[in-house]
Every structure is written in C-alpha cells, then in structure tokens.
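Handoff note, outgoing to incoming analyst
You'll be picking up this chain. Sequence as last confirmed:
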Amino acid sequence: MKKDPGTAETCNAMGDILNRIGDKWSVMIVGYLTHKTMRFNELRHAIGGISQRMLTLTLRNLERDGLVTRTVYPEIPPRVEYALTELGRTLTDPLDALWNWAAQHQQAVKEARYIYDTTHGVEEEDRPAERRYAGAVR
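Most recent structure output, in case you need it:
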C-alpha cells in the first residue's frame, strides 16, 4: 500500500531522512566517498575539524540508513574501509546540485542578508554567527 505524501507519518519520515542527509558531516562524508573508498583516518584527515566521535557516529548512522558500507579486513592491525552503497550513490546528483546552487548564489545570499540586517536594524553582535564547513576556504 502506497503512503499518502501528506500524512503525518510520511512527513515525519521525510524529516528524519532529511535530517540525516542534510547535516554538515553527512554531506561531507558522502562527498568524499563519491570519489573513492576510504579508511577512517583518511576520511577524518580529509574532512578536517571533525572529531573521532562525530565521525564514528555519522558513519554508523549512514551505514544504518543503507548509504554507506563498512568493510573490516581481518589483518593486524585491522583495516576498515567505508564506501557508498548504490543507495548512497543516488545522493551524489542532488548534493552536487545543492553545492552548485550555493556556489552560484552565495553572493546574492550575502547581499540579501546585508539588506535584511540594515533594514531591520540588526546589530553586528545580534547577527547569527557565520557557519563555515571544515576545510572551507574564504
């Protein structure tokens, strides 16, 4: 039986999924794994600014959601690699589109914020802090 897209159950499921795939760390992990299979520390160093605990939790949740596979090789020391699943690969186009949109419109958003702040009398100290992704270059 197909679910009605307007039901509370469907909306809650959508919110849950969007929270997972829309968070900063998940987007970055999926972005890196789009290019190649990576080991834990390789991912951690590539992303920069992510704690070991946050990377562990995010990878575990992405694996739980069927977006990432974790492969443990019986070696000493153990080798663990992470890769996108076929389901995870379906995220690359939407995330690329979002990334490209942000890159194309960042100046317009900056200008809109300036106009809003000026019009509404928002002082510098009252503005939301600028959020930067780890590894972002100004």
